[in-house]
Give the backbone structure.
Amino acid sequence: GESVGLHLPTLSVQEGDNSIINCAYSNSASDYFIWYKQESGKGPQFIIDIRSNMDKRQGQRVTVLLNKTVKHLSLQIAATQPGDSAVYFCAEKAADQGAQKLVFGQGTRLTINP
Amino acid sequence: NAGVTQTPKFRVLKTGQSMTLLCAQDMNHEYMYWYRQDPGMGLRLIHYSVGEGTTAKGEVPDGYNVSRLKKQNFLLGLESAAPSQTSVYFCASSRFGQGLIEQYFGPGTRLTVT
């Protein structure tokens, strides 16, 4: 079945350092992946997405890497700032493509130390 | 644009009471979704809709009903609330299109059932 999981539930980094958040997925047929950021008391916000025909995609201070061989996804945040403190979720597009459904992982809480 | 809005923001119910959560989007999106989020967990899909007048079950539909009478609104109903339905509920919407499946989330409704 489909499941998306994260290797670590929490991650602490120093301000200014780079952060790497990892995600494993189980459905080799998934063709779309997305990262969301959720700040306390708010709804998830889109960060970046990637299709399965790509290995890497870059945004502003963020990079997503996709390794289809080992079914692994990572989110890299460069020069982390206090505002990056949040819970980060990866999600994959479910096999039922008719409804564009996403399956979410558990989430990783990122804490930035001053 | 207001994006996705949810009403109410907070609610406390007694076991057995009923209520309706309202989600509205002004982006003319075809797809709408209701999720629940429990502590330490990702989002789980309750019900979704691929268009006005259509609804379908998600991963955890039991105890909930939905309706989509207008394209911009998606209602989630609890007919007889149970303590297990204490959660934060998020609504999301997305447009239909090849690869364009970013879901936009509302701010959430925190529901407590005593």
In short: Chain A has a mean pLDDT of 89.
